[in-house]
């Protein structure tokens, strides 16, 4: 933590903002490497301020389209209580879309919700009425908890989540509408999948990779689809993304013609606006339940990130900086 003074005056095109919320997310682990292995993601640099998703309020503006009191967001918001930013890099927010829950713009009504919704629509190939079964790994996390609910909304007849505690599994079923949930730390994931997905798996929303994904892929049907959202179990390893499958699992994937393509939500910018409106409508109607874990104080941001990476949270991890 450092305390610094920001300039009294701002330049043309700039705004002075007060930070309200910061988001901490699994992709940030990649930014701690020398090279993120992704052209759209810049590595964090030593002695520089860390950044990520953030929401704040404009306190002073010399930008033509932003005025004092506007709520704004950015994917590259500095981890500071206040900052001077280029107004052209900020997106103005409408709090009414989320009934004043501004943090939702960093989660369910932001990049996390977009990843879940567009991942399902672009790579899931869900057909309403086709009696498809969907499995979600990392199901109690920010993206997985939304993806499972969206699976039902888009037409899957059965949704099964995989999480790491009995509490998380209980919440997935009782609050999030999952049909069943597996605690991967108890018993065989493969045996539980066979019991809970007797007709096999048609859609797999993959947030974790590794052994869990190997177990799911082994039970996927012919011409089924993997939505490759994240590989959190592999982020501490030095390997290409997406990580290669084990030879035996890759053989299954090819023999059953299972699609497994890298999904990047930023490739669908033209669909973001309409998709955010859809997410907000579902939230307002109570069809999409939102869970957040909120930590208070800039000084707790690192601890919040660590908690999220070690699976200590349910839903989206947020840091409240000011109110």
Automatic annotation (TrEMBL):
Mind telling me which Gene3D superfamilies this protein's record contains? Medium-chain alcohol dehydrogenases, catalytic domain (3.90.180.10), NAD(P)-binding Rossmann-like Domain (3.40.50.720)
- Oxidoreductase N-terminal domain span: 2-92
Keywords annotated in UniProt: Cytoplasm, Lipid metabolism, NADP, Oxidoreductase
What does the record give as the reaction this protein catalyses? 13,14-dihydro-15-oxo-PGF2alpha + NADP(+) = 15-oxoprostaglandin F2alpha + NADPH + H(+); 13,14-dihydro-15-oxo-prostaglandin E2 + NAD(+) = 15-oxoprostaglandin E2 + NADH + H(+); 13,14-dihydro-15-oxo-prostaglandin E2 + NADP(+) = 15-oxoprostaglandin E2 + NADPH + H(+); 13,14-dihydro-15-oxo-prostaglandin E1 + NADP(+) = 15-oxoprostaglandin E1 + NADPH + H(+)
* Cellular component annotations (GO), alphabetically ordered: cytoplasm
Name the source's superkingdom.
Answer: Eukaryota
SUPFAM superfamilies of this UniProt entry?
Answer: GroES-like, NAD(P)-binding Rossmann-fold domains
Class of the enzyme per the UniProt entry, highest EC level? oxidoreductase
What InterPro entries does the database record attribute to this sequence? ADH-like_C, ADH_N_2, GroES-like_sf, MDR_fam, NAD(P)-bd_dom_sf, PTGR2
EC number(s) in its UniProt entry? 1.3.1.48
Any idea where the Alcohol dehydrogenase-like C-terminal domain is?
A: 144-236
Segments traversing the membrane: none
Q: Where in the cell is it found?
A: Cytoplasm
Query: GO:BP terms for this protein?
Result: prostaglandin metabolic process
Which Pfam families does the record cross-reference, listed alphabetically? ADH_N_2, ADH_zinc_N
Q: A Gene Ontology MF term for this entry?
A: 15-oxoprostaglandin 13-reductase [NAD(P)+] activity
Query: Partners and quaternary state?
Result: Monomer.
Tell me its family.
Answer: Belongs to the NADP-dependent oxidoreductase L4BD family.
Q: Which PANTHER family match?
A: PROSTAGLANDIN REDUCTASE, PROSTAGLANDIN REDUCTASE 2
Physiological role:
Functions as 15-oxo-prostaglandin 13-reductase and acts on 15-keto-PGE1, 15-keto-PGE2, 15-keto-PGE1-alpha and 15-keto-PGE2-alpha with highest activity towards 15-keto-PGE2. Overexpression represses transcriptional activity of PPARG and inhibits adipocyte differentiation.
Q: Please identify the protein, giving its name as recorded.
A: Prostaglandin reductase 2
Species name: Alligator sinensis
- What gene name is listed for this protein? PTGR2
